[in-house]
């Protein structure tokens, strides 16, 4: 009896991970596709790693990797009232999710309750947030 309850709890905990927030939505901008093992992909991986491991310290963090035509621009944002540890875990989910939800996309944006992640081969840093 006890062990079947334990199994049930284990099953439930696998079905409903508590700490893993799902994206609210994402935009795969469909500007173009990069190929597997391309320079663009390795620059993107570097960028996503930087954005998720350094985290925004003051609201947002931008990073640029590589040089034209394989240059990648990226920005990580956390909501103002998000505590640092939630910001970090949100961004760590974001970098994993974005490459699965927008596979091979040159440019994409993903939103969560706590954070937003965007990357592109074209700079967008000076543009207003709503201007995609
Ligand atoms: C990128 O690849 C996806 C999936 O194969 C395809 O649907 C899309 O049209 C491609 N986009 C461009 C701009 O070529
Ligand atoms: C990408 O690189 C890896 C490691 O070098 C290799 O195993 C894989 O076959 C490559 N894939 C493509 C599609 O070139
Ligand atoms: C971004 O990539 C797309 C698709 O390859 C290309 O049409 C566009 O010119 C690139 N933009 C920049 C700024 O390199």
Automatic annotation (TrEMBL):
It comes from the Eukaryota. Residues 1-21 form the signal peptide. Residues 22-124 form the Gnk2-homologous domain. The keyword Repeat applies. The keyword Repeat applies. Pfam families: Stress-antifung. Keywords: Repeat, Signal. PANTHER family: CYSTEINE-RICH RECEPTOR-LIKE PROTEIN KINASE 9-RELATED, CYSTEINE-RICH REPEAT SECRETORY PROTEIN. This is Cysteine-rich repeat secretory protein 1. It comes from Acorus gramineus.
């Amino acid at each position: 009896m006890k062990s079947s309850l334990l199994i049930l709890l284990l099953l439930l905990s696998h079905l409903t991970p508590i700490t893993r927030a799902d994206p609210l939505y994402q935009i795969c901008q469909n500007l173009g596709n990069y190929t597997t093992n391309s320079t663009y992909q390795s620059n993107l991986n570097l960028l996503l790693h930087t954005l998720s491991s350094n985290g925004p310290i003051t609201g947002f963090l931008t990073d640029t990797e590589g040089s034209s035509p394989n240059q990648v621009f990226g920005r990580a944002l956390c909501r103002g009232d998000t505590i640092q540890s939630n910001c970090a875990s949100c961004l760590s989910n974001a970098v994993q999710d974005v490459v699965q939800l927008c596979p091979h996309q040159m440019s994409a944006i993903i939103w969560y309750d706590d954070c937003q992640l965007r990357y592109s081969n074209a700079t967008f840093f000076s543009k207003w947030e709503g201007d995609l």
